[in-house]
Amino acid sequence: MKVFVIDEQKCNGCHNCQIACKDEHCGNDWSPISLPQPLTGQFWVKVDEKTVGQTPKVRVDYHVTRCNHCENAPCMAAGENGAVYRREDGLVIIDPVAAKGQKAIVDACPYGVVFWNEELEVAQKCTGCAHLLDAGEKPHCVDVCTTGALRFGEYEEFAEELEGENVEVMKPELGTKPHVYYLNRPKLFYAGDVYDPDLDECLENAKVTLVRESDGAVFEQVTDIYGDFWFDGQVAGSHELRIECKGYEAVVKKFDADECLNLGSFPMSKA
Asked: What is the pTM of this model?
């Protein structure tokens, strides 16, 4: 069974995969796999970016969306007369002839990655570049990914890493069993900095402790040369932050968060 594996920690937002998909499918008729993709209005592979946090503690996260080639594909159930079928390698394909006029195929996708071609009157989506696979080549989007963020192959090739903790599929509650797996999806971060207001200097090596109240998990680090601290890989909820530095009074802050936060600058008073 073929699967896509996307490591979002490696994605740098170059959009090569998105451009490659357009290059491969716009103006090219790959019947009986697919008809030409329109120049606008459709992204069979799309890179979305989101800026999180607040200045100056910010980060840009990238997320790649595409057809999930679901094991329990809703589009297959919606298509009549075999309009949507699964190949032996697991890729879900919309037959451009049998699917003509069947807009219900678009509406059935809970991920919003099936598109309607108004001119050709047919539903369209990522084919996994099945025409290239049949020629012994890789999907074009995978071939141009320079960071290794996007990979494709048999499930068995990736089985060991797909059993790890940092593996997700989109909307697992739907029960569609996607064949696109995401590694290292960005989590929340809580950051800030520590300084001495009298000296007007950053405080290096201050001990910063973050306690997650929901389960009591404790995270510790020390500030860097700029007085910065940054707790990544966090989850939403109530937390307590404690800052300690030799010769200074401790600072304690409690906060609730459901997004990445710059907790601000913390002035330390001499003990």
From this structure: 0.88
